[in-house]
């Protein structure tokens, strides 16, 4: 498909564990009976062993566990047993080994944060020494990681205190905390202004929504403890769920070395992992020939049960996945349809046409629900807000080129920028909107505030953009045959995938795919489909997809990692799999 605006000469897998963060903090269940802070001996503290005959201070070198530090291994095991609920076993291991999971100071700090004793938490962290039997068991504050700004940690604690006072509707005390405790720390002025605005919230629900915070009774204190623990020396405060993190890293390391890993099933810990190419979708079992012209885009629905394609002939065809029978043909477009977008619940589709119109359709009935007022230039792209109540269109005109619309066709917001938009991407978490202009610039907006966060100049013409399901990575396809993966938070390029195939002024779409989006896949000018391993950048497959012309678009089924679809200038949509998908539907 030609870039609009041109003349006719045209699991990776995210880690499921972090240092204490997660959907269900394990310390909730284990807090009252965990071994955290339990001492195997009065001489044991901060993970140091007592003198139980196993080791002697005069010994030149401690015994190791297959080359690993014995104390580290034991403390990690104690923590893992506690996480698993085996508190008696954890206590026995601590007593027998002489190693404690945490010192009393760490245990007291943990409890202070989880119980909302903010002054006590600050004292333990920075000032107040603890004593036991008249002997100081802790120096002037817990040992912090090198380079950590203690004021940042204070700010986090006081911010939580401020929010909880607002939740209690104690606005007077919250204001005093803001003025006397938070402001003197000289943190980000913008952040202070934001916190000040929360004083005007009319309800607790409004506070939680605006602050993106779940309250004292939710997980906020556990997340705070997790962030604070990352600033404390791990030898003092062991990172939470450390064994689980190490096991996940071991699995991920094996997955990253397995080119054909394409299953959501987690590898077994019992043996080393490998996958066979026979389970990878490399065979085109189905050819769909319902278009009379070039097919420019193909997109699976979010639930993977339907497939929609559009192209030069101005029609959109919706297929049932499995039988691949035509469910609906949307044909009210006067010119070619360059792109389409499924609503989050798959009930609606927006089509973007070169007749300068965007249309909203009922995807279940094929009925046209709304046609937006005519734009001055072709409508190039569309993305949905995560709630499915609004959508954003991109247009090549200088007016209304980036607009948010309601389901009744009403204009919700016009960014009013001069850039002509060629493609759009919305992060699944709804935080970022990426707008690609028709040249070489990317504009990254905060979708909540609608403010521009930053811009990226790629120094070459761009073709398409896509965002990973974890909302962390942006995939940028360029017309010089190069695709780049970009970290939206760190604002750094992570990896480059290169076909060496110059598409000049044509649109070639690139996307993530496979189980846990472990792959990057793109079409090409020469009709080939290129599949790379996302984590190591190795080219996994080069498939002859549409040899008689461009392969314009590839879409991986989000619910079936062994199926993807490709579309090309040969008027064909091909379904790739490791076995004939029609056999399962019969």
From TrEMBL:
- What CDD domains does the record tag this protein with? WD40 (cd00200)
Q: Where are the WD repeats?
A: 288-329, 330-371
- Give me the ranges of the annotated region Disordered: 1-56
User: Gene3D superfamilies, from UniProt?
Assistant: YVTN repeat-like/Quinoprotein amine dehydrogenase
| CC terms in the record's Gene Ontology section | GID complex
The residue ranges flagged as biased composition, category Polar residues, are: 1-22
**Bias type Low complexity, positions:** 40-56
Q: Where is the CTLH domain?
A: 102-173
| Origin superkingdom | Eukaryota
On whether Repeat is a keyword of this UniProt record, the answer is: yes
Pfam families cross-referenced by the UniProt entry: LisH_WDR26, WD40
Q: Does the keyword Repeat apply?
A: yes
The alphabetized UniProt keywords are: Repeat, WD repeat
Supply the name of the protein. Answer: CTLH domain-containing protein
Per the UniProt record, the source organism is Amorphotheca resinae ATCC 22711
């Amino acid at each position: 498909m030609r870039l609009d605006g041109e003349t006719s000469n045209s699991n990776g897998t995210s880690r499921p564990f972090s240092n204490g963060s997660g959907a269900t903090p394990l310390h909730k269940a284990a807090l009252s009976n965990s071994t955290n802070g339990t001492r195997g001996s009065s001489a044991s503290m901060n993970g140091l062993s007592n003198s139980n005959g196993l080791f002697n201070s005069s010994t030149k070198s401690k015994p190791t566990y297959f080359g690993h530090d014995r104390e580290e291994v034991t403390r990690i095991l104690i923590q893992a047993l506690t996480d698993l609920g085996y508190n008696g076993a954890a206590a026995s291991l601590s007593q027998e080994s002489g190693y404690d999971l945490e010192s009393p100071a760490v245990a007291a700090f943990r409890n202070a944060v989880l119980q909302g004793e903010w002054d006590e938490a600050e004292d333990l962290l920075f000032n107040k020494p603890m004593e036991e039997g008249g002997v100081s068991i802790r120096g002037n504050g817990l040992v912090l990681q090198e380079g950590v700004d203690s004021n940042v940690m204070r700010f986090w604690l006081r911010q939580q205190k401020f929010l909880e006072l607002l939740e209690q509707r104690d606005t007077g005390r919250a204001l005093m905390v803001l003025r006397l405790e938070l402001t003197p720390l000289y943190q980000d002025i913008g952040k202070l202004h934001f916190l000040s605005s929360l004083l005007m919230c009319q309800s607790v629900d409004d506070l939680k929504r605006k602050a993106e915070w779940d309250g004292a009774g939710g997980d906020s204190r556990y997340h705070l403890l997790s962030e604070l623990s990352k600033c404390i020396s791990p030898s003092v405060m062991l990172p939470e769920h450390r064994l689980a993190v190490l096991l996940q890293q071991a699995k991920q390391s094996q997955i990253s070395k397995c080119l054909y890993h394409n299953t959501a099933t987690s590898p077994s810990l019992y043996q080393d992992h490998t996958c066979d190419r026979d389970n990878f979708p490399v065979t085109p079992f189905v050819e769909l020939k319902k278009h009379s012209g070039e097919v420019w885009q193909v997109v699976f629905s979010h639930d993977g049960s339907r497939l929609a394609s559009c192209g030069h002939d101005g029609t959109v065809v919706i297929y049932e996945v499995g039988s691949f029978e035509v469910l609906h043909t949307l044909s009210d477009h006067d010119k070619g349809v360059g792109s389409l977008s499924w609503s989050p619940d798959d009930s609606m589709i927006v089509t973007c046409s070169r007749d300068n119109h965007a249309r909203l359709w009922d995807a279940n009935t094929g009925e046209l629900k709304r046609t937006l007022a005519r734009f001055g230039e072709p409508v190039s792209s569309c993305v949905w807000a995560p709630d499915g109540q609004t959508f954003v269109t991109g247009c090549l005109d200088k007016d209304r080129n980036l607009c948010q619309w309601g389901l009744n066709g009403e204009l919700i917001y016009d960014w009013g920028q001069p850039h002509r938009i060629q493609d759009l991407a919305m992060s699944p978490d709804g935080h970022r909107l990426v707008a690609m202009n028709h040249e070489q610039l990317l504009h990254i907006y905060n979708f909540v505030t609608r403010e521009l966060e930053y811009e990226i100049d790629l120094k070459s013409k761009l073709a398409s953009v896509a965002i990973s399901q974890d909302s962390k990575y942006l995939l940028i396809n360029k017309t010089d045959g190069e695709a780049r993966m970009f970290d939206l938070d760190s604002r750094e390029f992570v990896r480059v995938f290169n076909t060496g195939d110059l598409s000049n002024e044509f649109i070639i779409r690139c996307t993530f795919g496979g189980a846990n989006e472990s792959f990057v896949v793109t079409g090409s000018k020469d009709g080939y489909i290129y599949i790379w391993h996302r984590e190591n950048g190795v080219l996994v497959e080069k498939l002859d997809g549409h040899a008689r012309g461009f392969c314009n678009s590839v879409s991986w089924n989000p619910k079936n990692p062994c199926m993807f679809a490709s579309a090309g200038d040969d008027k064909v949509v091909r379904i790739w799999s490791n076995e004939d998908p029609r056999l399962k539907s019969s």
